[in-house]
Specification:
With 353 residues, the protein is mainly α. It contains 14 helices and 4 strands. A two-stranded antiparallel ribbon has the order 1-2. Strand 1 and strand 2 form a beta hairpin. Helix 2 crosses helix 4 and helix 4 packs parallel to helix 8. One of its GO terms (molecular function) is ATP binding. Keywords: ATP-binding, Nucleotide-binding.
Length: 353
Amino acid sequence: MRTFDYIRLAGQTWDMDILNLVAKIHEYKGRQDLYIRQKPVELERLVEIAKIQSTEASNKIEGIVTTSTRMKQLFEEKTTPRNREEDEIMGYRDVLNTIHESNEYIPIRPSYILQLHRDLLKRAGFSYGGSFKSVQNYINETKPDGTVVTRFTPIAPYDTPDAVERLCTAYEQAIASEKVDSLILIPVFICDFLCIHPFNDGNGRMSRLLTLLLLYKNGYSVGKYISIERQIEKTKDRYYDVLETSDIGWHEGKNDPTPFIRYMLTVILACYTRFEERVGIIAGKGNTSNAYDIVKKYAEEKVGKFTGAEVVAHCPSIGRSSTLAALKKLVDEGSIIRYGSGRSTYYVKTDRQ
């Protein structure tokens, strides 16, 4: 049976281009929080655009489509799904929202993956949503002449629950060890997940949702503002090619995931590049969140108590006096509560936040 040992990746030698990609993404990650703190209100406009693009692109890869007009109406809840394809599209949106809003509370465990899969297919009414596959599935390729060729045979149904359990355990152990860069680990996990192909349907969509989740959990939140799924859909042919190459010898533990790692790093870097381009466009239009908006955004996302000094440190685009004035306004309007006095002062957001 296929085994998973991700800590061994720490001792592997990587090509220079992969190391360069990792280094560049680390640089972008180092700047992302600064941009988000400086322009929280403007960047929120990118979130809804990214959600629509992600939902549309990930489903399109699987041949599940609707018109752009219908997609917008569905997201704005101005209409209801009128067929199974639109039900599946909205199911993707539901899980995407869950990941955006609650990623820190979703551990990488089989039970949670099953719950996400259940929600993905719930609207369409598929009985196998939230369950591992019950029949053998195959990854097939349709030739130009119409003939179908089996490209890869995933793990058998009876081995699937145990395989997913071991896959998740190996990931958690590698993350806890802090010996393997998460940018290397995430593509390897996703490649193995796709080789297991644990569900009767929805494996591709789940793999892309899990990619977003894993990036979020490791501090890479670019997928909130720029659609990772759209970047994959734009390079779909290469996506399938690198997966096919990375699958060779998988059952024997002899496959090389390097092509898929390289591809996913390129996708992530492209998204970060696009993110900074969008930030530049926003800045070019002269849009700057005022001090109140920035401090309010920080307070809304803060769990537990915080001090004025912490707000000043995390909101470097505004001055100390403007920060304190914004905190006073938030206290006056009841958005946050002030405790203590002088240097012992701290704040807590109210339950209505």
